[in-house]
Design brief:
The longest helix has 20 residues, at about 150-170. The strands form 2 sheets. A 5-stranded mixed sheet has the order 3-4-5-6-7, with helices on both faces. The chain has helices spanning about 35-50, 65-70, 85-95, 125-130, 140-145, 150-170, and strands at about 10, 55, 75-80, 100-105, 110-115, 175-180, 185-190. It is an alpha/beta fold.
Length: about 210
């Protein structure tokens, strides 16, 4: 996105760069280990395109600050590694009418979709796909399960493409479609996502 010349990019992260991040988070480098991730990312993106305004938010996205942060931007790209953040962003983006491009990783595959339920039917939101979070600790995090690092690059590039499509108003949106990448089979397939009339966020039934 920085290379494409997106005028302003906001980065939200309260973590520090760890050695285990480097095999999949290529915005960081070895010399950044121990540094705040937002500052490491800012330096890297500044080298790519010094004309882009990089806004850093070294904090954890929570219910108390999510609306104020999301309101500052036109589009949200979610690469979070926990369900609480994903559901929070879904609900806030729906309320503030912001497109949400959500990407997720498993050890050997990735999933991607765009959520614009604020446009009304037939557009679904994230809760139409997964109404409730899974039980705590039932889905291992990246550092536990392991991720084939290059998959993060594949999905990140696809996610950036969807952001640019939304900004430019071109092509076919992924709203209503879940794109799944299977690295071991070197293939993609799409799953249609219907809007759930009983959805607690965007449902139309009383």
């Amino acid at each position: 996105l920085a290379a494409a010349g997106v005028g302003a990019l906001g980065i939200v992260d309260n973590d520090e760069v760890d050695l285990s991040n480097l095999q999949r988070q290529i915005v960081h480098a070895t010399e950044s280990i121990g540094a705040p991730k937002v500052e490491s990312a800012r330096r890297t993106l500044g080298h790519i395109n010094p004309e882009v305004k990089i806004e850093t938010h070294p904090l954890r996205l929570e219910a108390s600050n999510a609306a104020a942060l999301v309101a500052q931007y036109d589009i949200v790209a979610d690469g979070s590694d926990n369900f609480a953040t994903r559901y929070l962003l879904n609900d806030v983006c729906y309320r503030l009418k912001k497109p949400l491009i959500g990407g997720a990783l498993s050890p050997f595959d990735g999933q991607l979709s765009t959520f614009k339920a604020y446009l009304g039917p037939p557009h679904p939101c994230y809760r139409c796909l997964f109404r409730e979070p899974p039980p705590p600790d039932s889905v291992p995090r990246c550092e536990t399960a392991g991720i084939l690092g290059a998959i993060a690059g594949v999905m990140g590039t696809l996610q950036a493409t969807e952001v640019l499509k939304e900004l430019l108003g071109i092509g076919e949106s992924l709203s209503g479609t879940l794109l799944v990448y299977d690295a071991l089979r070197a293939g993609f397939h799409s799953i249609k996502l219907p809007r759930d009339p009983d959805c607690p966020t965007c449902g139309t039934k009383p």
